[in-house]
Specification:
Helix content is 43%, strand content 23%. The termini are far apart. Strands 1, 2, 3, 4, 5, 6, 7, 8 and 9 form a nine-stranded antiparallel beta sheet that branches. The protein is α+β, with helices and mostly antiparallel strands. It is globular, with a radius of gyration of 21 Å. The protein has helices spanning 2-17, 59-64, 129-135, 145-159, 168-185, 197-209, 218-224, 229-234, 243-259, 269-275, 281-292, 296-304, and strands at 21-24, 33-40, 43-50, 53-57, 69-84, 87-91, 95-100, 105-121, 140-141. Helix 4 packs antiparallel against helix 5 (168-185) and helix 9 packs across helix 10.
């Protein structure tokens, strides 16, 4: 009776943390587990431990909670099989897989497992859908290189979550997303059709470094990367975005992030915008409202409660 209540409590906790997700028996064993969570802005990180079980997001769960988010599960103990549609990705310790919360999926967790989970907006990586779909076909290894740095960042964030200052989550969010993007982009075994992905990532890296420069343009970026503006524009074609649209989104997101950072509460909106290469305040107000449904001043009032 006691074990059944524990299993029910675990299923309730799991569903509360990840809407539409529930745990089921596997190999006759009751699903048990624990979960700790931390929010880094619009990115969630979770420390999940448990027994052998199946974790499932059903079509009904997707309909009830349709979100444009992706998720990774990094195995730290035990093993897992990730299934989504026709995809089946087997994970051992140190591996992670990428999957889509817009679709049903199933994770078969093997043994006494522990995993670090990260959920984030689909647009956060700045990668085209075709590349993301290809990445969901494979496992990623974090035993060395940038993958190991990403895994260490995720684990350290979870271990130190109770000791972080108020402004830390905003900055940790950027570090975690950037390291994940670098890990995903470092895979050498992506299909040949995505040979331009690494080059596109170089362009995005240049944009991020020079985002504060009001003179950033296709011409300046192309010249810095020794390519023609036409070749640069071609890299964005399969993403449904343009170079200019990408810069716009990254700048607006940077402004939004700074406006929600407690450490920057004393900085004026104009100063925050100028920090990211935006000097036209009426344009910022219109673009910000179109993107987030609120003006910069409205967001700041919401954050301060004034």
């Amino acid at each position: 009776m006691g074990r059944s209540l524990q299993a029910d409590a675990w299923s309730h906790e799991l569903a509360g943390a990840f809407a539409g997700l529930h745990a089921e028996r596997h190999d006759g064993l009751l699903p048990l587990g624990t979960l700790d969570a931390m929010q880094l802005g619009d990115v969630g990180v979770y420390d999940v431990r448990g027994t052998t079980q199946i974790v499932r997001r059903t079509a009904r769960g997707v309909r009830a909670d349709h979100v444009e988010r992706l998720k990774i599960c990094l195995i730290e103990r035990g093993g897992a099989l990730v299934e989504q549609g026709r995809r089946r990705v087997s994970l051992e310790v140190g591996d992670f897989a990428l999957y889509d919360l817009r679709r049903p999926y199933q994770l078969t967790m093997r043994g006494a497992f522990r995993c670090a989970v990260m959920t984030f907006p689909r647009a956060a990586l700045g990668l085209p859908d075709s590349a993301l779909e290809a990445m969901m076909e494979r496992r990623f290894i974090t035993g060395s290189g940038v993958g190991q740095v990403f895994a260490s960042c995720l684990r350290s964030t979870l271990d130190q979550r109770e000791k972080l200052s108020d402004g830390s989550p905003v900055r940790l969010r950027e570090a975690a997303v950037a390291l994940l993007a670098a890990t995903l982009g470092s895979g050498a075994d992506l299909p040949a059709g995505h040979a331009n992905l690494a080059l596109r990532e170089r362009v995005l890296d240049h944009v991020r470094v020079h985002l504060a420069d009001p003179h950033l343009s296709p011409a300046t970026a192309a010249a810095a990367l020794h390519m023609s503006p036409r070749s640069l524009h071609r890299l964005f074609e399969d993403s449904g975005e343009t170079f200019g649209g990408t810069v716009r989104k990254l700048r607006l997101e940077a402004v939004r992030r700074d406006l929600t950072d407690p450490l920057l509460a004393g900085r004026s909106i104009a100063a925050v915008a100028a920090r990211w290469g935006i000097t036209d305040q009426p344009w910022l107000s219109r673009a910000f409202r179109a993107e987030y449904g609120v003006t910069p001043s409205g967001l700041r009032r919401r954050m301060t409660g004034s």
